[in-house]
């Protein structure tokens, strides 16, 4: 393992695989090192007796995911491989599910909000839409919201806007504590992706993109990098007792891990790396002997459970409604998402305890769950989702303007956007920065990476 490389990529999540793909297209020699036995990182799926189980959670919007769609098209992934979800997002309040969340119809159906709260929501969305150009997901630090947290921002309006919309959405989809995470990235993302009725999912699991990218790359799985150190014009990686040298190294791992790995990170990089904290995530997959789901007048694929109503769960994903192919015919699959405040107590708990806590809570919302529940899997990520703190938002602009160096970074934490789009864009940007240092050998008649990035 002492072969010198053009580029070593640490981490085979979506950002690392995207960066490696782009650099290999440019003619550079690239190897990806992944500590886990499989690719995908937080977007990994596994198959068990006909079930396709996502360890994370992902959906694609036709809007706001331009880089992801461009990459999928390049890899030959068709719309048939990414069907529409078709089901709704619901909110639990007052003993029942209310549909219409993330949908224009919600302003009529109520989605669990009072009339006054809906009027305030119309004010928020109307004002943001009129200034939509200022809510750019690539520059969340430049929005009119400044560094206000989600709780501070929603505190200007009716309390239901926080308690029965922003908190449940932030808690389930982002794993955020609204008192710690900035509102600007969240509102920018919600404006970009549009209505839930147009969202899509991967036919064969959320790791589809990762697997397609990895198929054409040199990926060493089950290999843990212990340390990375920058030299004057190159970098070295310590892997067990071996040293691998590369002209450039990309740390495509969560910021806390990157900060530990990079032994001699420059002083000007450390404040942003420290500010990019992560929330841990925990979920339980329920493999069912029949398809049970929350009762609702309209089929749901997600039921959000606000902290105002529920202390253990942040939401329930009805995977067999998200796409019927996720479970064998006549069976069902649910994902129980733990509340951000519950996760720290359960992160190191034995699996039976985790399963018991989450399934007991979910039984309140899913009639028949206890009798239908045939098997369970627990999924834990200590570094689950980037937290997008106000401090990270304040420091981001200076960090993004840093000079290119032998050791660089990629991940959705750089974009403060917890999604595959954030990871893809960060990976493409890291590849572009690396090429600006190293140059490429690609035939100039082929589309360049820079032109691809401009199209994104």
TrEMBL record:
One of its GO terms (molecular function) is oxidoreductase activity. Residues 14-433 form the Amine oxidase domain. Pfam families: Amino_oxidase. Gene3D superfamilies: 3.90.660.10, FAD/NAD(P)-binding domain. InterPro entries: Amino_oxidase, FAD/NAD-bd_sf, Zeta_carotene_desat/Oxidored. This is Oxygen-dependent protoporphyrinogen oxidase. It comes from Saccharopolyspora spinosa.
